[in-house]
Amino acid sequence: MKLSKRLAAIDALITRQQNTIWDCCCDHGYLGMALLKRSAADKVMFVDILSNVMADLEATLTRNKKLRTPGDKKPEWQVLCQDVGSIKLDDVANQVVVIAGIGGELALRLVQQIIANNSPECVKHVRFILCPIHHTYLLRSGLHTLNLGLHSEHIISDKNRIYELIEVSFKSNQTVSKTGDAMWDLNNKQHTAYIQRLLNHYNKMLNKDELYYQKVISDYQSLYDS
Ligand SMILES: C[S@@+](CC[C@H](N)C(=O)[O-])C[C@H]1O[C@@H](n2cnc3c(N)ncnc32)[C@H](O)[C@@H]1O
């Protein structure tokens, strides 16, 4: 199974051998399976709340001899059918939590819950790789409030959609900006069209909370001043 451009961009951020990788909200599990195949970690955890999808995924992983042959050195895997907010992290030095393909508001809530439900000792070694659908301003503001620092941020264009790929941890001191200061190429038409779409969307939201959305709009507009 060839990864989509979006999932391939996430995969490409995991270059160093990891102890544990969490493919959260994994659904089909394509990303985790690709990580398993290239032995990117000692252990790959698949987590989703849908029991039928997780049962199918478990059956696929069990059947697939390339992913786990008894006695060989391939990484371990585990399928968990539960809310991502309640995962128990491993106490290891290199751990990545990937949350992709869900809304930014939910992604923030899940990150907040993971941090609240695990010891600071475990959480301090974790790198979060986030690639949500929409609501990235809210997500970014929340990551900043949590004191998470930025490692990298990228714009990914995949099948006529634009995604923000954000990598954060407590080990970085770089501020997470609300609009993604480090990722824009204002000479790239896809990037400017995406900013314009965000501005159009937030202009429509003005009647819901004028003060808040005016600030969001002026933050995105100021990208053009930098
Ligand atoms: C569109 S899929 C994303 C699949 C994959 N991560 C990707 O980016 O292509 C979203 C998945 O999130 C799962 N999900 C939503 N909220 C969840 C939660 N709180 N805990 C676990 N899984 C959740 C859904 O069941 C669904 O399978």
TrEMBL record:
SUPFAM superfamilies: S-adenosyl-L-methionine-dependent methyltransferases (SSF53335). Pfam families: Methyltransf_18. PANTHER family: TRNA (ADENINE(22)-N(1))-METHYLTRANSFERASE. This is tRNA (Adenine(22)-N(1))-methyltransferase TrmK. It comes from Pseudoalteromonas marina.
